[in-house]
Amino acid sequence: MDLITNRTIEITKLGMDGLMDRQHAVSSNIANVMTPGFQRKEVAFESQLAEIIENEDLKDYIKEQNSVEYKPPMVDVFTGEVHTYRTPTMQEKAYLQSNLYDKFNPQVVTDVFSGTNSSGNNVELEREMMDLSKTGTRYMVLSNLEQRQFTGLSSVIQGQ
């Protein structure tokens, strides 16, 4: 694990960015609750975040399989097979050097499935207030997680 580019810090930052975009969309929905014809907006980013985490796990697996540390060939005592360690292919090297975090792009989508009222507006104030609360709570959880990561990093730097 590299202390400076800690994966937890990167992932929480992306999650907080997505939640901030969602908070803006919910605020816009609330502000337009009485606007005729307004269609509520939603922000989708969780599947992108899950994919980034999955790909980071794959990177870790590739690094583990292609460790630069010297390991002599191992002989399997049961089968007699010789297991050697390999170097990464060109594709794997390119994949390891790619920045998966740059591909994160929360999508703002219009909710066309919710029922509309007589003015053509589909914003339900109660639902938006619940979403506002959930989003704020999730943001605070990620903020606390990131703070703990930075506190731990600070302790290491200070030698405590």
How is this structure best described in words?
It is built from 4 helices and 4 strands. The protein has 160 residues and is mostly helical. The strands form 2 sheets. Strands 1-4 form a two-stranded antiparallel sheet. A hairpin with a 6-residue loop joins strand 2 (74-75) and strand 3. The two termini are 19 Å apart.
Q: Could you outline the blueprint of secondary structure elements for this entry?
A:
Blueprint: H1 7-31, E1 41-44, H2 46-65, E2 74-75, E3 82-83, H3 90-97, E4 107-110, H4 125-158
Antiparallel strand pairs: 1-4, 2-3
Helix pairs in contact: 1-2, 1-4
H-E order: HEHEEHEH
Task: Tell me the distance between the termini.
Answer: 19 Å
Rg is 23 Å
The proportion of residues forming helix, as a percent range, comes to 40-55%
Strand line-up across the major sheet: 1-4
* Overall form: elongated
The DSSP helix count reads 4
- Detail the poorly predicted runs: none
Give the averaged pLDDT, no decimals: 85
The description of the largest β-sheet is:
2 strands, antiparallel
In percent, how much strand structure appears in the residues? 5-15%
In the residues, how many domains can be counted? 1
Number of strands: 4
Structural class: mainly alpha
